[in-house]
Amino acid sequence: MELYRLRAAADLMQVSYPTIKQWIYQGKIRSVKTPGGHHRIPQSEVVRLSGKERIASKHHKPSGLDAISGRNKLLGTVSAVQYEGLLAQVHIDLGGQTITSIITRDACRELGLKKGARAFALIKATEVMVIRG
């Protein structure tokens, strides 16, 4: 089992160091304490929270979500979906905060977005795109 220092885990999950610390204290992420009392994050937790099936090495070319130039990829859980006409309003819970995106009804159905599904919000400028996680 590979263990990551908090800063390394935060970099891999593209969140801040303070966010990792808060997640540990809130029980949202599992950590292992070293004999010296330092927290380490298991690779399985990084994979679970980042949606990355494989942690990239320095020589690995990015693929999938890692190949997208936008760095504001937020993994959350769909808390609600409301349909109206050709559109769907998708609410994604990001650890206590909600982000809302309007996408087409067809895209929502094709992604299988429904309450409880994991999904990424990809934020670029003033637009939010939703990617099934």
Description:
The protein is elongated. It folds into 2 domains: 54 residues, Multidrug-efflux Transporter Regulator, Chain: A, Domain 2; 60 residues, RNA polymerase II/Efflux pump adaptor protein, barrel-sandwich hybrid domain (OB fold (Dihydrolipoamide Acetyltransferase, E2P)), CATH 2.40.50. With 133 residues, it is an alpha+beta fold. It contains 4 helices and 8 strands, in the order E-H-H-E-E-H-E-E-E-H-E-E. The strands form 2 sheets. It has a 5-stranded antiparallel β-sheet. The mean pLDDT is 84.
Write the layout of secondary structure elements.
Blueprint: E1 3-4, H1 6-13, H2 17-26, E2 32-33, E3 39-42, H3 43-50, E4 73-84, E5 87-93, E6 98-104, H4 105-111, E7 118-124, E8 127-132
Antiparallel strand pairs: 1-3, 2-3, 4-5, 4-7, 5-6, 7-8
Quick description:
This protein is α+β, with helices and mostly antiparallel strands. Helix content is 25%, strand content 35%.
Provide key terms for this protein.
2 domains, 133 residues, Multidrug-efflux Transporter Regulator, Chain: A, Domain 2, alpha+beta
Oligomer: single chain
Biggest sheet: strand arrangement = 6-5-4-7-8
The CATH superfamily of the largest domain is identified as RNA polymerase II/Efflux pump adaptor protein, barrel-sandwich hybrid domain
- Quote the average pLDDT: 84
What is the highest CATH level, the class of the largest domain?
Answer: Mainly Beta
Number of helices: 4
Number of strands: 8
What's the shape? elongated
Indicate the CATH topology of the largest domain: OB fold (Dihydrolipoamide Acetyltransferase, E2P)
Helix/strand/pairing category: alpha+beta
CA radius of gyration: 16 Å
Low-confidence stretches: none
